[in-house]
Amino acid sequence: MTAPAELPIHGNSDIVLVRQRVRTAAVEVGLSLVDQTKVVTAASELARNALVYAGGGQVRIEVVHNGVRRGLRLAFSDDGPGIPDLDQALTDGWTTGGGLGLGLSGSRRLMDEFELKSAPGEGTLVTVTKWAR
Amino acid sequence: MDRVPVLKLGDILIVSIQIDLQDQSVLALQEDLANKVVETGARGVIIDITAVEIVDSFIGRMLATIAAISRMLDAETVVVGMRPAVAITLVELGLSLGGVRTALNLEKGVALLNHIDGSEIATAAR
Amino acid sequence: MSVSADAGRHRIETLLATHEDQIFRRWLEIAGASSSGHVDRGNLNGQLRELYNALVRSFGDSGDPDGSSELRGLLAELSRNRARQGFTPTETATVVFGLKEAIYESVGDDGSSEALQGFLWFSRLVDDLGLFTMETYSATREKIILDQAEQLLELSTPVVKLWEGIVAVPLVGTLDSARTQVVMEKLLQTLVDTGSEHAVIDITGVPAVDTQVAQHLLKTVVAARLMGAECVISGIRPQIAHTIVTLGIEFGDIVTKATLADALAHALRESGVEIVRNRGSRVALRTVEE
Q1: Which residues of A touch C178 (CB under 8 A)?
Q2: N or C: which end of chain C has fewer CB within 10 A?
Q3: What keywords sit in the KW lines (chain A) (predicted)?
């Protein structure tokens, strides 16, 4: 069993690294090709969010179990300004960073489980999970 | 930072993305292409993403922007070779790539550009 | 093992050897009666003879692993074959358990206390063998079910080529979310592999769809467009159309056709193929001579 891995997100090149590490983990867990692509895409979105909105953060990549099913859990955390209105942040097309406003809402659709914890001044924690079929 | 090379074939510019793109490379490619279109007077741009394993909203937006800029400079953009897994993910993400023409592969992309060119001439002649 | 138990066991072994004809004939009768109509006598005779010999051999040397494994191997083969040929569990189990009844008569004739002791021991042995037979039987059945489920998925998801550049998936049966996803991924991959720019998803054989399945169909059409191909959905039943509208699913500018034939005609037109009916050549002429 692979131990959970922590990766820093401080610059643009880190986003590429996160994608590569998440891809490797997704293959290991046994996700289908389409599910691998979904997880890596969500990871790319969330890593960029941490970089753009909080100036950086980190991701924890972890293999989880639920009975016989295996899954991949990613936890993105940052010490940025936090999100004042969570519902609004999860609305398609809503953005304060000049993006498309699909990062959070799109990642939620790409994953099986999605949890967002944030408050102004307290940073943001996004935890997402994808289960192997 | 890696730069993606832009190739010229007749009046078509061809870009084949072979690396895991950094955001800066994406922005650089956007600029390079706009310059190259003006410089060469190209009528069409083909972006081959056969080797691309993921397209997130940033890369997706780049594709749409390139298409919009090129159109303003009188060149049509065709994105070719998108993998099924990438397409399914983009749909789930909620990205429609509006205004971007697509084709299954490079060959069909070239045929599409020629077809567009041909029909424009036909319309003009009428 | 106590001395008397050992003696009992020995007594049974002797009976099996000395009364072989009588016991075997009785066993064949019982086993034959339970699975009448399924199996021909000669075949059963051969199978039981082999089992009987293996059983006797397994006593030859107490704890001889080879003898007992030979017996179990034969039993496994018998129950596997019976599971495949559709014998019921009872028919299969009676073959083994019938041995108890078959030997009981000889034990009764013998009448000695050793023989009765031995019969207890022999019963336990036969029970073990019977359980082993049933386990093999149900494992075989499970394997058959699994194989069939897999075959069904393969059978039900063909992507067929209708014309150069036009492929179709005729969907049959109930669609669940998982199966729809599998079919759709296969369709999109086929578009790439064959360079087809047109796809027809025919749902004539689908009795009903739920929201999720309708969404999957929709997403597939959009994904195909992103890849540079066009999808037509054909054979939508009235109930399904009703479901889709009631659920408020937006089908937008997706082309739908009543039948697979209409969808093919549409795809052909889109790819620039013209179909012309050749006048006259197909008309059957008959002249009646007066």
Answers
A1: 133
A2: C
A3: Kinase, Serine/threonine-protein kinase, Transferase
